[in-house]
Automatic annotation (TrEMBL):
The lineage of its organism: Bacteria, Bacillati, Actinomycetota, Actinomycetes, Streptosporangiales. This is Spore-associated protein A. Keywords: Signal. Residues 1-31 form the signal peptide.
Length: 163
């Protein structure tokens, strides 16, 4: 009986050590990068991983009468020649890993206005949206709600990257 109890105790200790190691292990350095967002089915969905960064804007808090406060992330406009799609990725740098409202918007030119495609939710790392955009001009926008409840944003208001 003593041997059986010792075996159970040893097994329990091994499970506890393994659990602690798993909980304390840092995530892989590339776990939530722009490339991961481009390849992820929850991101751009470009399994090939091949894309070009066309433009980016810092996502900043409102300060001193403009969006020029602390940077909380970056919004990227990407292009995949393989899929003939644009993708907008809002990648968090502030509170990365903490779920807060995060938005990515891709606007496709469709006179007289534009069609807006949005990914908006409580995300810990990024929001991303992609659409077929060959031959169309685009704009983009990203926003992040911070842990203190303020909103930060970055945007390109002009149409560009046509074709």
């Amino acid at each position: 009986m003593a041997r059986f109890t010792r075996t159970i105790k040893n097994a329990a200790v091994a499970v506890a050590i393994a659990s602690a190691a798993l909980l304390l292990s840092p995530a892989a350095a590339s776990a939530h990068t722009l490339g991961d967002a481009a390849r992820s089915s929850g991101g751009c969905g470009w399994a090939s991983g091949s894309y070009t960064t066309l433009d980016s804007r810092p996502i900043r808090r409102w300060s001193g009468g403009g969006w020029n406060g602390a940077q909380t992330g970056t919004v990227y406009l990407l292009w995949s020649n393989t899929y003939q799609e644009n993708c907008v990725v809002t990648l968090k740098s502030h509170a990365h890993g903490t779920s807060t409202l995060t938005t990515a918007i891709l606007y496709l030119y469709n006179p007289p206005e534009g069609d807006a495609y949005t990914d908006r939710g409580d995300y810990g790392h990024y929001a991303a949206v992609s659409r077929s955009a060959a031959g169309r001009c685009v704009r983009f926008h990203g926003s992040i709600d911070t842990t203190d409840g303020s909103t930060s944003q970055g945007t390109r208001t002009t149409w560009g990257n046509c074709g």
